[in-house]
Amino acid sequence: MALLELASISKHFGAIQAVNDVSLSLEAGEVTGLMGDNGAGKSTLVKMIAGNFRPSHGAMRLEGTELVMHRPVDARRHGIEIVHQDLALCDNLTAAANVFLGRELRVGVGPFRILDYASMYKRAGQIFAELKSETRPRDLVKQMSGGQRQAVAIARTMLSKAKIVLMDEPTAAISVRQVAEVLNLIRHLRDQGLAVVLISHRMPDVFSVADRVIVMRRGRKVADKKIADSSPEEVTGLITGAIERA
Amino acid sequence: MMFKKDLSLLVLILVVGTIVAIINPRFLSPINIANTANLIGLFGMFSIGMGFVIITGGIELSVGSMFALLGVIFIDLLVNYEMNWPLAMLLMVLAGTALGWLHGYLVTEMRLQPFVVTLCGLLIYRGIARYYTNDGTAGFAFGMNFPALEWLTTGRAFGLIPHSFIVFILLALVMGIVLHKSVFGRYLFAVGKNEEAARYSGIRTHRIITAAYVISGALCGLSAIYLAMYTRSISPASHGSFYELYAIAAAVLGGCSLRGGEGSVLGIVLGAILLQVLQNLVNLLGIPSSLNFAVIGGVILIGVLADQQIVRRRAQLKLAKT
């Protein structure tokens, strides 16, 4: 059974049809590359899965049960996490503080509870070690490289025991060496049995890490096939419209 | 990092203090220290609230006008309505809280800029205060006494330590825990730096920002009483004017960034202390008191410049090492 199933999902904003009758399924332990030109509907699709938008038509099923979400917190409660393009991190806080932002550990009694720094540093350290990242829990995020920042963002999803991780352009604007680091993080998530959706413009990244590629054009899904059965040339054609459908 | 900044401020205070003490030994006399401590307490209380607002990336300009408005009402309640003072005090703190909430509401829900909201507050409250007394001075009638209230506000422990200073230190301790040890404090920093990220993390950012203004308002309400009891008469046209700038100066000196997301309670406390030491310096060194603001402005400018240079130098050293 698919982990997440989208059945004939559509979304329109007034007269604009952003996503048109898209069906797809995500499997546990699989990385799905989601590709398409700007305005193809990738972001809208992902935002529906993340609970930012409600679909105009169609249904979503998580592990077979109907999924209705009103806000992003609902998605998170169901184990769907999103790692944003602009890296929704707070520069002025430590790595550990960012990992735990919104779900801090506390000690104390009743209303008098203070932040449990020690436990948070320890747990964050464990997660970074699991991710084989050199990120240190006590470092401020503003002093970190792009790759380390991604590690922090990804550690956030590990903390919550997510089932599905949506990654929006995680390899944009970082150095080549760090790209490799981030791709390793993605493989690591997959090996843990998560379903990863990788939204990217970078063909090499998708072809090196994804198991499957979905191509969107003008709000429609024009391809959904195994990476092994496709090629960068074909995907480029699908994105631009040179190839109608595959 | 934060601690280093606080430390350099402490050093600055000690250096300035030492120089003043050498030139004029009266600086260290118990009476002078007690008087300065009293002023530190009075000006420090609302500086903490200002710091909270600044950490959210906002600003609170209506502080001084709030003192005038709440001050004249407080004295009116005591003198003309003969209300018992704990109730009047509670009402003023609640009134400050309500005004703070209003500012927070306008900033978050109505999406107005903090500068605009609180600038309007500055004008409106000052205007109402002046209208309330017909531009006259509100004060206590001759021979009117409130022993318990006076003990609480202008009293001195062991005849020396001003209660205002003790209250300030207690408030600083509590607010320090709130800012640096509580989840709320952590969210304040998060919201101040990257509100969007905070919202994505499930933080109710509007509530957090509003809470900062509410805390500032409550502390202003309390300060209004202390200031009213200190001056004992309030001319609403001038009472408390420019006080918001003292608070902003204390907070910024203490390491609060006007861009939000940075600051510490210890820093604000030290900033408030430095400001009053500078005031005191002007008096003790025989500098014409008309130059008061110029001296304070000059020292702050030099301090901020020096700090920036040190930070830049340190960053370069770090870069050179790697």
Note the main attributes of this structure.
heterodimer; A: 246 residues; alpha/beta; Rossmann fold; six-stranded mixed β-sheet; four-stranded antiparallel β-sheet; 28% strand; globular; B: 322 residues; mainly alpha; two-stranded antiparallel sheet; 4 strands
**Number of E strands of chain B:** 4
Largest sheet of chain B: 2 strands, antiparallel
Largest interface: A-B, 22 and 20 residues
Helix and strand content put the structural class of chain A at alpha/beta
Terminal CA distance of chain B reads 19 Å
Low-confidence stretches of chain B: none
- Percentage of β-strand residues of chain A: 25-35%
Instruction: Sketch the topology of chain A as an H/E string, one letter per element.
Output: EEEHEEHEHEEHHEHEHEEH
Helix content of chain A: 25-40%
What is the CA-atom radius of gyration of chain A, in angstroms?
Answer: 19 Å
Structural class of chain B: mainly alpha
Q: How far is the first residue's CA from the last residue's CA of chain A?
A: 24 Å
CATH class of the domain at 4-88 and 161-240 in chain A: Alpha Beta
The third-level CATH topology of the domain at 4-88 and 161-240 in chain A is Rossmann fold
What is the CATH architecture annotation of the domain at 4-88 and 161-240 in chain A?
A: 3-Layer(aba) Sandwich
Q: What is the average of the pLDDT values of chain B?
A: 92
| Unreliably modeled segments of chain A | none
Average the pLDDT over all residues of chain A and give the rounded result: 89
Strand order of the largest sheet of chain B: 1-4
Strand count, sense and barrel status of the largest sheet of chain A are: 6 strands, mixed
Using the alpha-carbon principal axes, give the shape of chain A.
Answer: globular
